[in-house]
Design brief:
single chain, alpha+beta, 4 helices, rod-shaped, binds zinc ion
């Protein structure tokens, strides 16, 4: 047995009805044997979502949004930490990283900037400790 929420397209009345299977519903609909309980119109269709299903989905979504916000907050804190404690060298990252490594200079701060994955791989192969971190854009609001 299957329960469907049906809606009358004529008077907008919603009502529940039991069927032995979804096939039976299709069959009755085709034979025009489904009619509205209040106005008897045969212009009846299956409602897309039961109210129950809608609520469950809403709950899941807000959970995901909450998780997304938490991760974003962490990444944002991480970004702030890097900005406060590292020197930004932009596109010169690969060059700067090498000069620090090979010239044995001891900078006061670590550096951060942008580099391609290929550059990072090469730096690592040369024994230069390089980390890739996720970098998020600041919130615009
Ligand atoms: Zn009706």
């Amino acid at each position: 047995m299957i329960k469907y929420l049906l809606k009358c397209k004529h008077c907008e009345q919603e009502f529940e009805s039991w069927f032995s299977s979804s096939n039976e519903y299709d069959r009755l609909l085709k034979l025009k044997l489904l009619n509205c309980q209040s106005c008897e119109s045969i212009n009846v269709e299956k409602s897309l979502m039961s109210p129950n299903l809608l609520n469950t989905k809403k709950k899941e979504n807000s959970k995901e949004i909450k998780k997304y916000r938490e991760i974003r907050k962490k990444l944002s804190d991480y970004k702030k930490f890097v900005k406060d404690n590292f020197e930004y060298v932009g596109e010169n990252f690969t060059y700067k990283a090498r000069s620090i490594h090979y010239d044995k200079k001891k900078p006061k701060k670590g550096i951060y900037g942008s580099a391609s994955l290929k550059d990072v791989k090469e730096l690592r192969e040369e024994g230069i400790k390089t980390d890739i971190i996720p970098w998020i854009e600041d919130d615009k609001n």
